[in-house]
Backbone:
């Protein structure tokens, strides 16, 4: 079946120069919902990486003392502590943002101002929960 070509239109040139481009990040103004969505995805990946490190630590503990000393040295170093504290914050953030999404799924808090306030509350709450957890530990 032959392709349908409109009169005066060539298949190779579909007037691409005069068509509007798809919206791009430079078109949009940064919004709280946008930032929290991106951060939610990043923290999900970060939690996976942090969990891999903790599992590695447990596996090293179950193999032999020398291997455990290596894993323990990595996780108790300043870099390992930084990763674990970051993972703790990611866990708190991911948890609170998940609750926020459950509220949205119920059809509440979807107005722009409410979404902005809940985004700020999630970020602030995750920092507070992280600090409280570190103080208790």
Residues:
């Amino acid at each position: 079946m032959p392709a349908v070509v409109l009169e005066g239109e060539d298949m190779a040139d579909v007037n691409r120069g005069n068509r509007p481009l798809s919206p791009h990040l430079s078109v949009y103004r940064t919004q709280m919902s946008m930032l929290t969505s991106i951060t939610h995805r990043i923290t999900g990946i970060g939690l996976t990486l942090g969990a891999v490190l903790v599992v590695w630590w447990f596996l090293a503990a179950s193999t032999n003392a020398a291997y455990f000393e290596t894993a323990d040295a990595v996780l108790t170093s300043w870099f390992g502590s930084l990763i674990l504290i970051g993972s703790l914050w990611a866990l708190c953030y991911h948890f609170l943002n998940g609750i926020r999404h459950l509220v949205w799924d119920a059809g509440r808090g979807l107005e722009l101002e409410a979404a902005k306030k809940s985004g700020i509350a999630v970020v602030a709450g995750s920092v507070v929960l992280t600090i409280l957890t570190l103080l208790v530990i």
Remarks:
- The CA atoms of residues 61 and 132 lie 28 Å apart.
- The first helix runs from residue 32 to 63.
- Residues 32-136 form a domain with the 3 helical TM bundles of succinate and fumarate reductases fold (CATH 1.20.1300.10).
